[in-house]
Amino acid sequence: MTRKLTAKEVVLKSGLKCRCPECGKGKLFQGFLTLAPRCEVCGLDYSFADPADGPAFFVMMIMAFPATAFGIWIELAFEPALWVHFVTTLPFLLLSCIPPIRPFKGVLVASQYVNKAEEVRFDTSREVDPKDEPRSVAITTN
Ligand SMILES: [Zn+2]
User: Fold this and answer.
1) Domain assignment of residue 101, yes or no
2) How far is the CA of 109 from the centre of ligand 1 (A)?
3) What is the pLDDT of residues 42-71, one digit of tens each?
């Protein structure tokens, strides 16, 4: 069954799965965080995508609270030696921050694609098309 997905669905489904925002099938990454040059299924050029530090920023801002709370709780509850934090708090911090970066980057890239985000240009000769809305993409769903 093929139906048009809304912009929000495209961003969440293809972004979280780290798939191409156009077809939903091709891989978005060729390494852990390195974007592939283009989609191997539909050929979409990923050169538009530049989330920069966005994924790391969002993951740090979200995960800093539970990781810090966990470390403070261990310190206040058990008053352990410093090495205990190296085997509990540090792994918790790394496991709560590193794995979510990839899907966050996928969501930001899909969001850039859907919203046609690009660098600001000061081209005043072009008028804005009022029909220029976010893309809707046909992705096959099961
Ligand atoms: Zn594709």
Assistant:
1) yes
2) 13
3) 999 998 888 889 899 999 999 989 999 999
